[in-house]
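Q: Sequence in, structure out?
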Amino acid sequence: MEEFLIYAILAGISMACSLCPMGVILLWKKLPYFGDAIAHAAIFGVVIGIMLHINITLSVIAISIVFGLILVSFRQEKIEGILTIILTYTFLALGLFLLVFMSHNPQVDIFSYLFGDILLVSNLEIKLISVVSVLVLIWLYFRWKDLLLMSINEDLAVVEGINIHRLNLEFLVIVAFLVGISIKIIGTLLVGSMIIIPAAAARNFSNSPVAMLVLSIILGILSVVMGIALSYIVDSASGASIILSASFIFLISMLPTIVKSRFS
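A: Exactly. Output:
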């Protein structure tokens, strides 16, 4: 197997191991739009990085975390959903507005950040994503019971002595960071889908929280491998191929429900 394919698969597996469990928790918390919101806002970070001639990954991570912190401050507001939508498109519009004033840099392909290109991932980026994924899984291990209880009933979590504000802050900042480092791999326009679709498919296949978490990772990895294979065979966009593979798996997960509703 060619070296760049091995790099791509390793990066994709690491990405799935961290992003997909976050998607499970977002579904439990009824916040499926959060990852997509951060990803769209991260386009502003791409443009800022190019304009200021700084590392684009770092600028994307910074803007993603800032956006996540702003959303955390609105968590208790009754119009949280509306504010999230407004902020998302404000950050996106800022990025697109500044894009016109950006000096052309032939070394930077902004479309690779919009749509992703996992086949061009470097050895350093693989190491970064792998380390982050391990740290996220360790955090999940120690915070699992608290996250589950908070997702079921925040009032009950408070009674049990859980600091839900701090836990929400930790979780949303981690999601923002993961979105930031995944932009170059899957693209700002598609990374939100990678967070939610495998988790949604896992929900259809599983019958317990732990099973859903583990299965989301497995289905995420399967989506990555299928997507990279499709991209290599037909020379298609890697990010789009991965998401299409994830969508195909989700449709398969829906078949038992569809059949049952048709014949019941």
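Residues 10 and 73 are 35 Å apart (CA to CA).
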